[in-house]
Amino acid sequence: MFLHTFLCAGVVPFVVAAAITIVAAQMHAGPRVFWPLGTALGFIAGYIALKNQTGMAGAIAAISRPQHAADWLPIILLLALGVCLLLAEPAHRWIGLSLAAMLVLAAPLRLLCGNVRLNGEWSAGQKLACIVLLASLFGATWFILAHSEMAHTARTRVWLLLIDAVGTAAALTISGVLVYGQACGALAAAVAGTALASSIAGRRSRAARAESHQTFGAAPPSSGFPAAAGIITFSLGSFIILGHFFADLSATSALLLFVSLAAAGGPLFDGLLRIRGWQHVVIRAIACLIPLAAAVTLSFG
Question: What global pTM score does this model have?
Answer without folding.
Answer: 0.89
